[in-house]
Structures are given as C-alpha cells and as structure tokens.
Amino acid sequence: MFSGASNFVNSVDRLTLLIFLISLFFLVAITATMIYFVFRYNMKRNPKSEHIEGNLTLEIVWTIIPLILVGFMFIYGWRDWKMMKSPPKNAFTIKSNARMWSWSFSYPNGKVTDTLFVPMNKPVIINVNSSDVIHSLYIPAFRVKQDVVPGNKNFLWFIAQKEGTYDLFCAEYCGLRHAYMTTAVVAMPQKVFDKWYIDTAAVAKVSATGKLILPGLAIIKRNGCTACHSFDGSKIVGPSFKGIYGEKTTVVVNGKEQQVTVDDDYILESIYDPNAKVLKGFQSNLMQPYKDLISKDEVKEIAEYIKSLK
User: What is the pTM of this model?
Assistant: First the structure.
C-alpha cells in the first residue's frame, strides 16, 4: 500500500493517514454528539433550562487524550523530519539553481541540465540555491519539498526507488510565470545513469525530453530562457527570439530611448547585463545576469540559433 518512488513515501504516507484517521474520528464523534444534543436537549424536551455543574473527570479526560494524540503525532513527525535532514555520507551531490522561472541542475563533472537525472537506489543530495526570489523545490512523488531562499544554503535528499519520470514543481509563488516553472526528475538504474553521466560531450545537448538538439537551443532550454522568451513571435515576459537578429530595435538606457542592432555583441550584453539596455515595452529588473552560468562560447551558440530563426 505504501510502496513508492522514494524512501520517504512510506513514513510520510503513514503519518498522513494516521492524522487523517484521527481527524476523521473526531469529526464524526463531535458532529454526532452535537446532533444528539440538538434532539436530546431541545426546547420541547427541556422547556426550562437547568444549570449543569462542571465535571472534573470529563475535563481531565478531554484534555489528556488530545494532548497524548498531538504529542504522538509530534514525535512521529519529528522523527521523520530528523531523517529528512540527515543524509548519508555517501550521497551523490547535485547543485540546483532556481530563477524566474526555471530550474537548472549542475553535476560534479560539470554537466548542467534543465531536467534532474538521478540514479536509483542511491542517496542523492540536492543543494538548492536561488538567483532572485524565494522558490520551493517540490517533488510530489518523492514526498520531498524544500524552500529555496536567496543567500541561504539548504538541501534536500532522497533515494529514488522506482525507475521513471516524475514531476518537479516550484511550490512557492515566485511571480508572473510561476505556474510554468516545472520540469522533471528522471530516475534511472545505476548502469544507465553512469553511461549518461560520463557522456560529457552531451553537456550542451540535453533537453527536457532527453533528445539531442541544436547546441544553442539546448543551452536556451537548459537555462530556462523559454519561460520568458518565445520562438514564434508571441510576447511573454521578455521579447521573442523570432526574427530579431540583425534588426534594429528601440531600447531604454537610463530612461532614454536608443536605437540598437541585434547582433552578437547585443545578445552577449543582454545575457550578461540584461538591465543595461531594456527593450522598449518590457519591464526592467526581471532578468538576472547569467554571466556565471553561460560562457561566451555558449552565448555564440545562442546567437547562432537566434540567427536561424529569421
């Protein structure tokens, strides 16, 4: 009944079921008592109200029993919480970076993906970080969630026990495109994961579906650029990539409008210092600098891909 995708499913589901059953019992018991009192002590049966003295025994019982139940639930929850905060020493560590509105995952060998790939039956630690606002990394199937606060170091860990692909959400409202801040966790057998992990040539070619795609597009997807920029000319939070390369456009610099040409230098500046020249009609200070995440060679690949969209 309680077997699940991670090592935490059993304990979390048992505690949830226990709290639900206790709550259901008292809901039924209290509701039934109220209904009984409505009929037993209505005005027709009791035309004259009576003064009822307190019952010390009853008061002690209804104080001690809830205290015992709440204490039991607290101890059970505390035990599970301690387990979730005590990862094994041999755990495989992955760095996660959250930003409006995408996830990226960095592996010890330098590989970076927008989908979380993990080996099965091995402890995995996710060190979480945010580049802008508060996010929350949530994997429902694994029963794990951790708030990601800018400037605060934190982590979550788990052991994936079933092969498959599972949803990964942001569970903290983080702005306009919060609902689109989704990706997936792919749990693979150790041998399959090892083969994927050592294929460093595919670092810039991993998409959310695991297919090999154009390097520039792979980098764009990996860094979550599609959360704000479209490929078909539609306006989201940021300008569309379609048909912009080589075109003149109006930007705002220090409150004044200027004409610029969208070329490699402009794309580099827009990625490394996105608020220096904000395209007219779009809001400033939404995009954070990507200088520490995207190399100049990768920017060139992005520029080549944007050029192909003309």
Answer: 0.71
